[in-house]
Structures are given as structure tokens and as C-alpha cells.
Amino acid sequence: MTREEKNSLIDTLKEILETSPSLYITDIAGLDSKNSSDLRRACHKAKVKMTVVKNALLNKAMDRSSKDFGDLATTLKGNSSIMISEAGNAPAKIIKEFRKNSEKPILKGAYVEESIYIGDNELEMLTSLKSKNELIGDVILLLQSPLKNVISGIQAGGGQTISGLIKALEERNH
Known about the structure:
The chain is of the alpha+beta class and 174 residues long. The chain has two domains: 3-129, CATH 3.30.70.1730; 133-173, no CATH class. Helix content is 52%, strand content 16%. It has a five-stranded antiparallel sheet. Strand 4 (106-112) and strand 5 form a beta hairpin. The N and C termini lie far apart (74 Å). The model has no long low-confidence stretch (mean pLDDT 88).
């Protein structure tokens, strides 16, 4: 591979790193062709891009990136593949589900929404992360709750007077 080809690959990896909110570094070495195909199919279904990478090229792309990957570069040993996804927990869920029938993939590390996770022991926590849309839904639900109380208070008090509304709300809170 020429120097220009390497620089081109590094630039491509850098662009992927810059535009992706989450990056998982895994070890899939040793998977047979059937399991490898099944893993790729599961990734495709969950809109997760999986690519085998050279550690040195990924390390240089991380160095050139404007993002701070902290100690994630220390995980770049042995065979590495990356899993890229918009949803921070999607790759973790795929890995967890896949490992019900296989020892691999092993999570080396992850970068999710500016947080760094090192080691396979972080997998369970990463599966429980909520996506941005799930968090927005939770906030909307919390905001709707007081509004529902006011509306039901108006309906319970007949909506005839403000004092009826206040009295209904007081009774609800006690």
C-alpha cells in the first residue's frame, strides 16, 4: 500500500469518526464465515456499519480527528473492527445478543456521545444507554404529567371556577 493510499484511508476513517456519534472497537477474530455473515447481517438490520480496520490507520485517524478519544487508542491491539452507529446502544445490543451463541465479538472499547468506555466489562452498561430520541421521549412524558393533572383538575371541578380547580388540585396532591 502506497503512502497516498494510506493517507486516503486515514482521511476516510477520520471523516467517519468526525460524523459518527458512536464508535465501538471490537475483536471478531476467529469467527467462522457463517458467524461472520450472521454478525454482518445483524449489523445491517440494526443500521450499524461494521468494518475491519488496521490499528495503525485507525490510531492515526483518531489523532487527526477533532474529537478526544482519550485512552481508546490503547485498545488498538490484535485484530480490530469498528462498529459505527447513530444510536449509541445499538452495537452493544448486537454484541450482547450475538454472544448468546458465540464468544465473539469482544468489546475492546467504545466512544459514545463524547464518553469513553474501555473493556468488555462495560458491555452491559452500554446496552442500557438510552438513545437521544428515547431521552427526548422521557422528557416529554415528564412535561406532560403536570399538564394532565391540570386538565383532569378542570374536568373534576366542572371547570366552573378557578376556586374549584384549585380545590380539585389540592385534593389530588393530598
